[in-house]
Design a protein that fits this description.
It contains 8 helices and 8 strands, in the order E-H-E-H-E-E-H-E-H-E-H-E-H-E-H-H. The protein has 260 residues and is α/β, with parallel strands linked by helices. The protein has an 8-stranded mixed sheet with strand order 2-1-3-8-4-7-5-6, sandwiched between helices.
Length: 260
């Protein structure tokens, strides 16, 4: 990707790893090895059996395997995962939105996807169709995500923003009337709502503010050779159709350009 390309402001075959929440899956890597941190953000990353750990975590594991880079993931609340990745060299993080504020803080290794960020409300409530309307509401967002900065940049006051530790907590707050709407990835929220057993038609999307590229990233310490091997692995998985098959297996709609 051309480094001069404008960054859009915002806020993530069977592949194996076993997960635990919130501690590390397995023992930490030896000195000089890679660490991989993430959070429970289905359908992108989530606990499960091999090949069922989220579309982007499955993809990253396939890339690591093909690149012969050995590491195992640790699951944490998102804010903690982001802090760890931002402080510890050779710590990979997925899925990370590439934003202007984060640009200089991370090594941007491989673009994985592009997602859209939307206001969502209960279908029984008025849909959010404008920023003027949103500024009068109580809005839920994910703690540690760039979405909270976006809301404030768009004129939603801090005291109207409810920062939740997880998507599950955000959706509970919506159902209980603690917030009027939530703001985040439409893909993640729709999938989490469906997986919880709720009827999909009870959650309605409204105004989309932005889109953002989702990357595999690290604070630093990844060599040029390692980054090249990861990019080559991703290119090979795209070329042989593995990435498209993976999205289809999860039942996810996508635009071809979203994957490149």
């Amino acid at each position: 990707m051309n480094p001069d390309r404008r960054i859009v402001l915002a806020t993530l075959p069977a592949f194996s790893l076993s997960l635990a929440w919130p501690t590390a899956v397995r023992s930490a890597p030896m000195d000089g090895g890679l660490t991989l941190v993430t959070s429970e953000l289905p359908p992108m990353t989530m606990p499960g059996e091999p090949g069922h750990r989220g579309v982007l975590l499955d993809l990253v594991e396939a890339m690591l395997k093909r690149a012969e880079l050995d590491t195992l993931p640790s699951f944490f609340p998102w804010a903690r995962a982001l802090m760890m990745a931002g402080e510890k060299p050779r710590t990979l993080i997925v899925p990370l939105n590439r934003t202007a504020e984060r640009e200089s803080r991370f090594q941007w290794l491989v673009k994985l996807y592009a997602q859209r960020f939307t206001f969502l409300t209960l279908a029984s409530k008025p849909r959010v169709d404008s920023l003027a309307q949103a500024r009068r509401l109580r809005i839920g967002g994910l703690r540690g995500s760039s979405n909270l900065d976006t809301l404030q940049q768009r004129g939603i006051s801090r005291d109207r923003i409810y920062a939740a530790a997880s998507v599950t907590e955000m959706q509970r707050a919506l159902e209980r009337g603690l917030v009027d709407a939530v703001y985040g990835s439409e893909l993640i929220h729709a999938d989490a709502w469906r997986r919880s057993g709720r009827k999909p038609n009870l959650l309605q999307p409204g105004l989309t503010l932005e889109s953002a590229e989702v990357w595999l990233a690290a604070q630093g310490g990844i060599t040029e050779t390692e980054q090249s091997r990861l990019q080559q692995a991703h290119d090979a998985l795209l070329a042989d159709g593995s990435v498209e098959r993976l999205f289809k297996r999860y039942g996810l709609k996508y635009q071809p350009d979203d994957l490149r």
